[in-house]
């Protein structure tokens, strides 16, 4: 049987399969990119800031194209010219022959691929500088000339950085082109190395010399621009051009720029005549000159001329730095008030400061959060932040400082019920704001709530309580339904022990609508959840709410702002809104001291997130923003309309900001001076409160911010500034203010914790529509004399901790496994001196316990007092009668808390019976006798009073059990 011929094998064609897979992969990636861009368009469009997104996109695309072309075309042209002008019959060695054999099949790909790859990187780099480019195109003059060159400050802020970036980009393009030309010329024989001899063809010589000439010309321009950069470079004493810079560095850079330009001309000459000696000698001369003129000569001037007479020679430049720094940080108009602080606590000393005394805040927002959680959380799916906020409200015609917090969602509290449907459809929003009086406490030390409960009740104006946009809102929620459909979203529990729940449907415009298949698919891909696409709870009226944190929301619509690290909630015009402060910054302000913003604003209240713009030397609180807690709408107000940086951005985004005149009086009454700006200013004023150049140079009166006194001796955290309603010397009436203190700057191991300065700023923006308060932002600095030893916060805290009688009483409070917590140590200018006030809390070790305000520590000069209430402590401190009443003067033993735990509505206090009141009065006297006996070491009297006090407590227990209507409600977990 004959063998049958085999059919020829058909070779597999893998190329089409690979191409198909590649095309599919590209399409998939492109689709995901498009989905992300599409979602961004919907988000910005719904919020009314689509202009911001499109302007940024257009700027990025245009700059990417410019960067790509500016890099790819010169590189491609350089490679092409080097290749096309190669010698046709060049004699190559065997090694180069092998290189050519390997490279030749890839030559076309490399000649086009290398420029494209470099162009893509250059385009990405250029597109990232869209803000720099737009501010240059829309720059606004500052109207102030710099002290060295006489240019407008706007040149250094907007123009010089742009010009230097252009020169740097062009230098990179030319340098890469030069390297690729040399590589191509060597590979194809235009450059040959024979022993010690280097032979370069004419075409290669012309191209290399011309390219090198262009590069050196760019370096000459760069060095010339470096002259101007000296006014914003940090030096050992100041930021800016000092004596050595003005007399050696700046002239030297001008000379070096001229030398570099001459050398560039020599390279152009070489391209024409073919002699390399002149440019090589010129290059060597440039290097030597840069060492001598750029480094050695300034060192000689500094070492032998400046250092021996630095205080005299540097004085004019230090004066420039002082003036510029104070202008750049907005402290040039600070009111310096010499303050001879009294240290003797005399009877009636506080009579003239009665309003300030009545507003001293005892509720520490960093301590009482557990009390808010235990008393006002109600359900496991609600939460309060660890650090509460301070605000103020007009109540019955008087300003009341309050500690406030929003009751937000905590989905992890759902436990096993944390399904997709519950997390994104049912539990969609928090509920209400809780506000406690800052200067009051209940009988057992609980906060006195001015607004509380579910539904929210209290003295604040009526407002929309639902919080769809908060600091801890879920990553996304789907809300909304057709009219008539049953409500799905949990609104709030009914209260008490009832498990009934109230349902609601979101009726605002808070997010993009999921009204078509493609949009649902886009968001299903964005959040990687197929439930968004498949769930029957998603209907044509559904909206998806995301990016709900107020600070993140403002950051996205105003990418040119640096935002304050803290936002706070306020009831404004019947709405609950978040107020966010925005800053415009630069690090190019001439002669202004550079400060690390992250270091300046870090204190015991917390460390800021990583800042994209850290080293700054100019700051303005240029924008006030509000974010509606119900619908997430963002409004930006141009707060500092004279700021040239803000004016520049208003040209870029003309419809993004509202004028300050559009702010309502209700909103202005809650606007405050931002803490981060104040921290930056106090960091600067530690040295720049001194305006005499000689004293500044010697650091004779340098100050620093005290360390947090309650954090222990080894802490590195600074004491934060505090908001208080108080009257500073020079003010006619108390106003809402922010203050901080100064102590002498430590030198080596020597550190004196005595007060040297007290800085306060008026934070009351007024309450008239569109009219900012006349004194808002007014900085006042109390300067204490050098020979005045008013104790600083650290010393006062040591006095409190080391006093034997106080320690004995604290040990009593610690009985029963309780912890004693020191609250914020406040410093208040009253009575002609400085009064220290510190609340003391007691917290049991139970899981549901919370701090209760039990005692108050006060100090004035070297005298201290420790009593149950601030009012009593002040009377003891000031000889039996302080002359003023504190805010807690109505707290009497036996009265009910204003808001019992677990209830949403305040109750009316029940007065004790005559018999109970008599026993309470006797107990009060016995407590005072115990304290007196303890301080005098009379243990017999102490034991007698203690025994009688125990009898009275037993009698009170028996009476209150017989009269349950007068029994104070016990605190949960205590």
From TrEMBL:
Keywords: Cell membrane, Membrane, Transmembrane, Transmembrane helix. Residues 894-910 have a biased composition (Low complexity). One of its GO terms (cellular component) is extracellular region. InterPro entries: UPF0182 (IPR005372). The keyword Iron-sulfur does not apply. The chain crosses the membrane at residues 15-37, 57-77, 109-128, 166-188, 208-225, 254-273, 280-300. Residues 883-911 are annotated as: Disordered. It is a multi-pass membrane protein. It is found in: Cell membrane. Belongs to the UPF0182 family. HAMAP family: UPF0182 (MF_01600). PANTHER family: UPF0182 PROTEIN SLL1060. This is UPF0182 protein GCM10011372_01770. It comes from Agromyces bauzanensis. The lineage of its organism: Bacteria, Bacillati, Actinomycetota, Actinomycetes, Micrococcales.
